[in-house]
Design a protein that fits this description.
3 domains, binds adenosine-5'-diphosphate, Heat Shock Protein 90, binds magnesium ion
């Protein structure tokens, strides 16, 4: 999340008068857009209405964003662009527009902005033009334009309560997903142990039992059974190792995220360059989550992209750990068409993390994973000797 640049000095009467004039001009455009909105709504049953809306809504948003920036300058505090990202095709975009509460606030704001422009802003402009009124203009303009900015902000920015409500909504969803995810993980572990190590230990016990029975009559047979048992023990150990790796890979504990990612990169069939710029370690659960996420993205590169090269960057700044996995393959990655990337999103969601996918047809594909977290202080000792 970017922090707004410092704006210590509020705009003076001259700049504010400029805002007033610009807003008055934009209010004409808003009126036209409002009419088109209504028209688009009425004609939505026909195709042409939808086409109209998909053009009118971004135009309205652009104008609303100019007002947000002006209000931010007037109050000296940021008024963020609150729209939900609306990527994808025609219908997806329309659906996101329709379900974004800010779309409807914009709509309600348009006539209000028009009225405010022709009362507040026009007053400022008339005062500015009058020779005898310049004194009033000088003192009244900051107040008038603050009132105007307050109107805009009331419509165009979420209040504290609304932001908290949205936050609760997100947390409820991610918590439910985290619970689902951990239940699924437990089932997977149980299955792995049941089918793997447990089955082998049962076989081991049988071999040893038979060896015991055969010991006196047929020592050769007993020895063969014991050799079998040894082989089974080795496989059981291997199974247990792989279960452990699925929980928290030892390489992660030993070498940290950068080293562990480097290790997967080396195992890939294509060259993968790793640029790890982390001076410290994220908390262990975050580290594991990002590690598995990167592993899934790299598996996808090999499985789906046909890329000749891939690259990974790991960095940390502004309290956010960022991992980017890129490849020069065919593009077209779509989380909705599989299970792997959705799983990654769910895992990240538990840590308030996000995954952004940029994968135009023809490539390149860039998967950006971000998780807010702090790094523990950098290690002063070199890592323990390799095993
Ligand atoms: N790096 C990539 N390049 C091209 N296509 C990709 C890439 N990653 C994923 N995809 C596409 O996105 C789909 C979804 O990926 P994912 O959710 O991991 O599912 P899957 O289980 O098929 O791997 C894949 O089926 C594939 O078509
Ligand atoms: Mg996959």
């Amino acid at each position: 999340m970017s922090t707004a640049p410092e704006s210590p000095k509020p705009p003076g009467p001259f700049l504010l008068t400029g805002y007033a004039a610009a807003q008055l001009g934009m209010s004409i455009a808003l009126l036209v857009l409002f009419v088109l909105w209504v028209l688009g709504g009425v004609l939505a049953v026909l195709w042409v209405g939808l086409v109209l809306l998909i053009a009118v809504i971004p135009a309205t948003r652009a104008i609303a964003n100019v007002h947000r920036r002006m209000a931010a300058r007037v109050f000296g505090s940021p008024v963020p662009d609150p729209y939900r990202p609306a990527p994808g095709g025609f219908f997806t975009r329309l659906r996101v527009y329709a379900t974004d509460p800010m779309t409807w606030r914009d709509l309600a704001w348009m006539p209000v902005a028009f009225v405010a422009s022709f009362t507040i802003n026009l007053t400022v402009l008339i005062l500015a033009l009058g020779v005898v009124t310049w004194f009033i203009w000088w003192f009244a303009t900051p107040w008038l334009m603050r009132a105007r900015a307050a109107v805009d902000r009331w419509f165009l920015a979420y209040s504290r309560t609304e932001k908290l409500e949205q936050r609760v909504q997100v947390l409820t969803e991610t918590r439910a997903e985290a619970v689902d995810h951990s239940a699924a993980e437990l089932r997977r572990l149980e299955r792995d142990l049941h089918d793997g190590a447990q089955a082998r230990l049962v076989a081991l016990s049988m071999s040893l039992g038979m060896a015991d029975a055969a010991f006196d009559e047929d020592p050769d047979q007993a020895r063969r059974l014991i050799q079998d048992a040894r082989a089974t023990t080795t496989s059981a150990i291997g199974d247990l190792r792989s279960v452990v790796r699925g929980i928290h890979p030892p390489v992660l504990a030993d070498r940290g995220l950068g080293g562990a990612v480097q290790a997967i990169a080396l195992d890939m069939a294509i060259p993968v360059s790793v640029d790890a710029r982390l001076d410290g370690r994220p908390p262990a659960p975050v580290e594991a989550c990002v590690y598995f996420a990167v592993a899934e993205c790299l598996a996808n590169v090999v499985k789906h992209s046909g890329a000749r090269n891939a690259w990974i960057t790991l960095s940390h700044g502004d309290g956010v750990l960022q991992a980017v996995v890129g490849d020069d393959g065919a593009g077209g990655a779509d989380p909705q068409s599989g299970t792997g990337m959705l799983g990654v999103m769910r895992r990240l969601g538990a840590f308030d993390g996000t995954m952004a996918v940029s994968s135009p047809t023809g490539g390149p594909t860039l998967i950006t994973l971000e998780v807010p977290c702090d790094l523990s202080s950098p290690r002063t000792m070199p890592s323990s000797a390799p095993d």
